[in-house]
Specification:
Mean pLDDT: 81
CATH superfamily: Sodium/glucose cotransporter
Distance between the termini: 40 Å
Largest sheet: none
Number of helices: 23
Structural class: mainly alpha
Radius of gyration: 23 Å
CATH architecture: Up-down Bundle
CATH class: Mainly Alpha
Number of strands: 0
Order of helices and strands: HHHHHHHHHHHHHHHHHHHHHHH
Helix content: over 70%
Number of domains: 1
């Protein structure tokens, strides 16, 4: 029996909580219905007709990432490891988001590709395109399953329904608005969900800090708990990386997480890039990830700190951390739910539950909307049914959204076997994102790189990450914590680069004329520029200035914590 089905974690919701929840669901479905009226072509459905302002796409950019994994997974990490979890934000997200806005977005938006695999098609040809399209589609189904599983556990805790019933109900609601209004429905709902999530987590953090005696009270309690004072400082983060040596731990964080995993995720993950591609201008597209970086810097304070509070204030979590056999079945993923159960009054509880459900639905809708785009354009249209009228692909996109939802219900049960879902997620990123980033960055800055090198590098990089995972699982190498995914990501990156370079020198490159707009040195500077008039005018809309502000604040946060 799953531990969440036990009565000790039933949230005591009242009529007011259910009314708030019902209102929220009606609002979400209403947005889907209204967005449907703007969908006339496949471009409207998959990329919102490239018509949205930067603040909308910027908030959606961050909300799409603020899924179940982020909220429950990071609070689980906060409970288990403490402040080192902030690396996922300050080292493992913000620098890469700024790089995406400043360096990569001009290529994506300027080349008018509809997806990341389509960029691969133009740069490396069909084999690399197909490998990327299939691996991305598979990753989205696995990640959507993780979001769906967490969504179901909350419904289970709230209503006491079996997990499988909760999984299906949750899936149907997300499917309804994504299939109705496409990317616009997903994006507008993500903006709404961003505010709902913040409205849920800020009061929980404030009440939690009050309960433990403020920040100093939390510091004292964490210092006295298993894991001790090391959990209060983000560096060197040995617990998180699984390395005993400080130098290796910092190296793992900066190279494995900060460079390979982070840049791999933020710059090549179509779930995120798709939001920026829906912007109405080059400047808005560049600002999208930079606007998203502002809230991203501050999210640790409302997801990690509640996890740390739960670890010292919730009976079950204290028992779990102390290794008490009576609490062996408790999972760190439940830290936030326990805290909500103990601290929030009715009414407030309804908002908090809506916030959690919002985060899962935002994450899952992002997975579905990017899956249907890549599957329709990059697999179905490119290789199976070519040259059909646009209406055919619009209808097919809606059907494929439904199929993806059914598949996600299946993968939800894979996710259910992990105690800390961040371990599962980082593992997936080391398989799919790390090798893609290596191929991408090499292909974008090295014009000599050949099409054959594109797909052979990808495949061998993925194989290297899978090999590290198998060795860690079988005990051939000892990599506790999230060390296996950091090492796997590093191995994938290095192997991909080595294989790509070797194969490039053994094969023929494309003519330079075919690489304009796809390789940095062959792209005219003016085509990478954005307008500074109309909606893009004003110093406060300068991507470079905004990125500079974010970078300075992030460095300060790293020094303080």
């Amino acid at each position: 029996m799953h531990v969440l089905a036990q009565s000790d974690l039933r949230l005591d919701a009242s009529a007011i909580d259910y009314v708030l929840l019902a209102f929220y669901f009606l609002l979400v479905l209403g947005i889907g219905y209204l967005a449907r009226r703007q969908v006339n072509t496949s471009l409207d459905f998959f990329l919102s007709g490239r018509s949205l302002p930067a603040w909308v796409t910027g908030l959606a950019f961050i909300s799409a990432n603020l899924g179940a994994i982020e909220v429950m997974g990071m609070s689980a990490n906060g409970a288990e490891y403490g402040m080192p979890t902030a690396h996922y934000f300050w080292i493992g997200a913000v620098p890469a988001m700024l790089f995406l806005g400043i360096v990569m977005m001009p290529f994506y938006y300027g080349s008018k590709v509809r997806s990341v695999p389509e960029f691969m098609l133009r740069r490396f040809g069909k084999p690399a395109h197909l490998v990327n399209g299939v691996s991305f589609a598979l990753a989205q189904i696995l990640i959507a399953g993780a979001n769906l599983f967490l969504l179901a556990t909350v419904v289970n805790v709230l209503l006491g329904w079996p997990i499988w019933v909760s999984v299906i109900l949750a899936a149907v609601i997300v499917l309804a608005y994504t299939a109705l209004g496409g990317l616009s429905a997903a994006i507008y709902n993500e903006v709404l969900q961003f505010f709902v999530i913040v409205a849920a987590l800020v009061p929980l953090t404030v009440v939690g800090l009050y309960k433990v005696g403020g920040w100093q009270g939390l510091v004292d309690k964490v210092t006295a708990s298993p894991g001790g004072a090391a959990q209060l400082s983000s560096w060197p983060g040995n617990e998180l990386t699984g390395f005993g040596d400080n130098f290796l731990s910092v190296l793992g964080l900066v190279f494995g997480l900060g460079f390979v995993l982070s840049f791999g995720y933020w710059t090549t993950n179509f779930v995120e890039v798709q939001r920026a591609m829906a912007s109405k201008s080059m400047s808005a597209a560049r600002r999208t990830p930079i606007i998203g970086a502002f809230p991203k810097m501050l999210i640790p304070f409302i997801v990690i700190i509640p996890g740390m509070i739960a670890a010292v204030a919730v009976t079950e979590m204290i028992g779990k951390k102390a290794g008490d056999p009576a609490y062996a079945g408790v999972k760190y993923n439940e830290a936030l739910l326990f805290l909500m159960r103990d601290l929030l009054p009715n009414g407030m509880l309804g908002i908090a539950i809506a916030g959690l459900l919002a985060s899962f639905m935002a994450g899952m809708a992002a997975n579905l909307s990017s899956f249907n785009t890549v599957f329709t354009y990059d697999i179905w249209q490119a290789y199976i049914k070519k040259d059909r009228p646009d209406g055919y692909y619009l209808r097919f996109g809606r059907i494929v959204t439904a199929v993806a939802t059914v598949l996600a219900i299946g993968t939800a049960f894979i996710a259910s076997s992990y105690s800390n879902l961040m371990d599962y997620l980082q593992q997936l990123f080391s398989f799919f994102n790390a090798p893609l980033f290596a191929t991408f960055i090499l292909g974008m800055f090295w014009k000599r790189m050949t099409a054959t090198a594109g797909w052979t590098g990808l495949v061998s990089g993925t194989a290297a990450a899978v090999a590290v995972f198998i060795m860690a699982e079988t005990g051939a190498v000892d990599l506790p914590g999230q060390g296996a995914s950091f090492v796997g990501a590093g191995a994938a990156f290095v192997v991909d680069i080595v294989v790509s370079v070797a194969v490039t020198y053994a094969t023929q490159p494309k003519p330079e004329a075919q690489l304009a707009g796809l390789v940095y040195s062959l792209t005219p500077k003016e085509s990478r520029q954005h307008s500074t008039t109309g909606d893009d005018a004003g110093w406060y809309r300068s991507p470079g200035l905004l990125a500079g502000i974010v970078l300075v604040v992030t460095i300060v946060l790293n020094i303080i914590f």
